[in-house]
Specification:
Helix content: 25-40%
Mean pLDDT: 91
Shape: globular
Strand order of the largest sheet: 4-1-5-7-8-9-12-13
Number of helices: 9
Number of strands: 18
Order of helices and strands: EEEHEHEHEEHEEEEEEEEHEHEHEHH
Strand content: 15-25%
Oligomer: single chain
Length: 342
């Protein structure tokens, strides 16, 4: 049976083409994608294209964008075997993380990709990223099921779990890294799947459920040497604030100043949620490893383990939107739901 892939262009560098007269970059018509990338005809897949109107710079991504994107995937879920989302790189890891929590019971691939150079430029990385993403989204296993059943990011020959990925390089073609989880696939002469790392649904045929009620009353607070009491109090006193992603040192350590710990404890005692995430690129939070981590546990913080900031933030958006009781949010925050925690 002919495979059907829906290509969703949201914006970003990959969809730009240089105007021959003005030399300015502008989006091209993705309904005619095979004109720009004729190699796609060799697959024998049906590749339909849908473009956001207007397209957006990924720096302008907001939760409303995620709701729209999730709705498009839901509306077309029964008609396509997989989805490729073309997206700017700056917030791609946030969007992929959000989709992983918003699309419950996902059993088909949703592959985010983009490029560092426009697809119309001679040295572009966009063509390879696009071609490989479509091939990955169409791949089946021996039983005829999708090889990939989750939200991913494909960039520069590597496929990563979306909610484990962070952008770490603004200039190189290898723009993304998944420090705490191995690649799901590596693309060279052959595509080598890391079968043990891939998510496999226990039961197939479940209805795709959307979680589009997002509560964004969340702050990200990164500690640093010299952080001041007025600054911390100002963040925690933000009107309506329900949760905080606290980026700590090392394995989850923080300053031991009484004013700092008192401020955190006052916030959690009043019903607020604080999740402890490490600032390090790799590794996990263990609040029992050092005294300066244990004091945070006693202040009522939730251990974020090895979640990325992007995953912790978007997971909180979804959980806060689902549950009015912050105690329930705190309980569910530490439970993995889409492979975001080891």
């Amino acid at each position: 049976m002919e495979r059907k892939i829906l290509l969703i262009y949201t914006g970003g560098t990959i969809g730009m083409k240089q105007d021959p007269e003005t030399l300015l970059l502008k989006p091209f018509d993705f309904h005619q994608i095979t004109r720009e990338v004729p190699e796609l005809k060799k697959f024998g897949y049906v590749v339909d294209a849908l473009s956001f109107d207007p397209v957006i710079d990924s720096s302008d991504v907001r939760p409303e964008f995620w709701v729209k994107l999730a709705g498009i995937i839901k509306a077309n879920y029964a008609c396509y075997d997989g989805f490729v989302v073309l997206h700017g790189t700056d917030t791609m890891a946030f969007s992929a993380s959000a989709m992983s929590f918003m699309l419950e019971n996902l059993e088909k691939p949703v592959v985010f990709t983009g490029s560092q150079l426009p697809i119309g430029m001679l040295r572009t990385d966009g063509k390879e990223n696009l071609i490989s993403s479509i091939e990955l989204a169409a791949a089946q296993d021996a039983e005829g099921n999708p090889r990939i059943s989750e939200v991913c990011i494909y960039f520069d020959s590597q496929l990563f779990r979306g909610n484990r990925t962070t952008k770490y390089n603004a200039e190189n073609f290898r723009a993304f890294r998944s420090a705490n989880y191995p690649p799901l696939a590596e693309v060279g002469i052959h595509i080598r799947y890391n079968t043990a790392a891939l998510y496999r649904p226990q039961v197939r045929g479940r209805e795709l459920l959307l979680h589009t009620d997002l509560d964004t009353h969340v702050a990200v607070l990164k500690i640093f040497p010299g952080i001041t009491e007025p600054f911390v109090h100002a963040v925690l006193a933000t009107p309506g604030l329900r949760a905080v992603v606290l980026e700590t040192y090392g394995s989850g350590n923080s300053p031991s100043d009484a004013w700092f710990l008192d401020a955190l404890h006052a916030f959690t005692a009043a019903g607020g949620v604080i999740v402890n995430i490490t600032q390090c690129q790799a590794g996990t939070v263990d609040m029992g490893a050092y005294a300066n981590g244990d004091i945070l546990r006693r202040a009522g913080l939730v251990c974020g383990r090895d979640m990325t900031t992007e995953a912790a933030l978007t997971k909180l958006f979804v959980l806060l939107g689902q549950y009015a009781d912050n105690k329930v949010v705190a309980e569910k925050l530490g439970i993995g739901v889409s492979g975001e925690i080891s």
